[in-house]
Write a structure and sequence with these properties.
MetI-like_sf, Sugar ABC transporter permease, MetI-like, 2 domains, transmembrane helix, mainly alpha, cell membrane, 14 helices
Amino acid sequence: MTRTRIPLYGTLVLLLLAFLAPLLWALSGSFKPRGDIFAYPPRLLPDPFTLDNYQRLLSGQPFWRWFLMSTVVALVATTVSVFVCALAGYGFAKFRFAGRRLLFGVMFSSLSVPFAVILVPLFVILVKSGLGSPWFALIVPWVAPAFGIFMMQQYIVQSVPDSVLEAARIDGASEFGIFRTIVLPLLRPSLGALAVWQFLQSYNSFLWPLVLVSDSSQYTLPLGLQTLFVSEQRQYDLVLAGAVIAVVPAVALFVVLRKQLLEGLSTGAVKG
């Protein structure tokens, strides 16, 4: 049995190295002088080791403003999105109403539409309606993603028994009370997985902020780092330092929600 697993383990190790190599190169490059980042032959360990990249990034660029903008927008978008997706998924999973299948089919079909197709119409609608403020408009595309609604609907169908809901209704509980006190606690694993996915989608978004934001004081982190990359000096050292710091919120969220995330993925694997 062990010998038959050697090719599998070998393949997994190679894949792990392929995923880790760019991350390790970025981490190493953030501590190197600019001239040593592309030195040949490449060296994984910085020599000399320097913190100058981080000092120049934090003191000479509005990095913390970019960081705050991206983090706040992603946290708000994630919180709203998780609640809306759970509520919509509950409606599709447990209620029967006219046009339900058609509406769900339209929603599900929207997964095949690239965001670039609706980017300009969405921008025009927000501007014409007076809702083009970046603090609001940056959140709009992530409020009710079709993938999140579909994910919640599938999990609720599998994990929330109708008998429990009927018992709560007999006891006089309101529909929203049932959702808040019964359904949401049962959805914790899937909510954690959705929160991680949604945070990364909003936090890493580049195309939508690029179209929406014109004031450099309201740049998100991807836009801010892009300005360093396209500058005349091609400040790769500052970009790598910023990218390393940018990873911190995503890693922190994963650490906080790792139990729910892993439980949600394992539950989906078993029930799938």
